[in-house]
Design brief:
CATH class of the largest domain: Alpha Beta
CATH topology of the largest domain: Nucleotidyltransferase, domain 5
Strand content: 15-25%
Shape: elongated
Distance between the termini: 39 Å
Number of strands: 9
Structural class: alpha+beta
Largest sheet: 5 strands, mixed
Order of helices and strands: HHHEEHHHEEEEHHEEHE
Length: 257
C-alpha cells in the first residue's frame, strides 16, 4: 500500500538470483527450488499457484518461467569478452541455500538429516519423492527440483545466541571445555531461546527469551550451558515432527557455530 505505484509499474517479480541470471544470461528462468520459496508456487504440481495469483492480482507474465530440469545458461557476449575462461562453463539456475546445504552434506535420503548451525540454525531432510500428504505442523516443505523435496524447520537463535552470551556474560576462556565436561541439565536453569522470536515449530514472532531458576549460586557457565541445551531441545522438537513423515537414522552436522 505504501508503494502502490511501484507495484503497478512492476514488469516482473524476480529473486536476486533470477535478476542476476537476467543480467548475466538474458534469461530470468527460475528453478523449482527458488520458486517454491516464494510461497506462491504449487509444490505438488511444480507450477505457479493459479488461485494465489488471482488473489494477488498477479499475471503469469509477472513471474519468471520455470526452468527445464536440464536447462543451462550461457553468458552474454559482453561478459564472455570480459571472462573468456568461462566461455565453456555451464551455468545452472540457482537453488535455495538450505537445499544446497543438504546436498553438500550428502543428506539426500529420508534416513539422513542435515543439521546446520550458523548464526541461526536448521534441521532438514531431503529425498526423492513428492511432498507428504500432510506437512508436519511447524515445518516447511520446498522443492529442490521436479523430483526431490526438502522438509525441515529453522531456528532464529543458533550460534548467534552463544555469541550474544559471550558478549554479555563474563564467560571464562575455557567455557566451552567446561560445558562439554559437565552432565546435561546440571544447572537447574530453564532457558527459553527466543531472543529473536520463534520460528519452528511455533512461529511466534512475539516470543521473547527468558531465564528461569536463577539463584545466588548460578554462574555464567550455567547460563551458557542452559542456553545451548535449549537450542538442542528446539532441534529435538523439529526432529520429532520430521519423524512423523520419515525415520531419521543419522544426523550430519555442519556450520560455523
Amino acid at each position: 500500500k505504501a508503494q502502490a505505484d511501484a507495484i503497478d509499474q512492476t514488469v516482473q517479480w524476480l529473486s536476486l538470483s533470477d535478476f542476476l541470471s537476467l543480467k548475466l544470461f538474458g534469461d530470468s528462468s527460475t528453478s523449482n527450488s527458488m520458486a517454491s520459496a516464494t510461497g506462491i508456487f504449487d509444490i505438488r504440481k511444480c507450477e505457479w499457484d493459479k488461485p494465489l495469483l488471482r488473489s494477488l492480482k498477479l499475471q503469469r507474465s509477472h513471474l519468471p518461467q520455470i526452468a527445464e530440469p536440464d536447462q543451462t545458461f550461457q553468458l552474454k557476449p559482453k561478459f564472455l569478452k570480459r571472462w573468456p575462461r568461462l566461455a565453456e562453463a555451464a551455468w545452472y539456475p540457482a537453488i535455495g541455500d538450505g537445499a544446497a546445504n543438504n546436498i553438500g552434506s550428502g543428506c539426500v535420503t529420508k534416513e539422513r538429516a542435515a543439521l546446520m548451525v550458523g548464526t541461526s540454525g536448521a534441521l532438514r531432510v531431503a529425498y526423492r519423492s513428492g511432498p507428504p500428504t500432510k506437512i508436519p505442523d511447524g515445518l516447511w516443505c520446498y522443492r529442490i527440483d521436479g523430483e526431490r523435496v526438502i522438509i525441515g524447520g529453522a531456528l532464529s537463535d543458533g550460534g548467534g545466541l552463544y555469541s550474544w552470551i559471550k558478549e554479555n556474560l563474563r564467560l571464562p576462556a575455557n567455557a566451552e571445555k567446561m560445558i562439554a565436561a559437565r552432565p546435561p541439565a546440571s544447572h537447574g536453569i530453564t532457558f527459553l531461546p527466543f531472543l529473536a522470536g520463534e520460528r519452528s515449530t511455533g512461529y511466534n514472532e512475539n516470543a521473547r527469551g527468558s531465564v528461569l531458576g536463577l539463584t545466588t549460586a548460578t554462574s555464567a557457565v550455567d547460563i551458557a550451558q542452559s542456553a545451548m541445551e535449549s537450542v538442542g531441545y528446539r532441534f529435538a522438537d523439529i526432529l520429532d515432527q520430521l519423524n512423523s513423515v520419515t525415520k531419521v537414522d543419522d544426523i550430519y552436522a555442519s556450520g560455523g557455530a
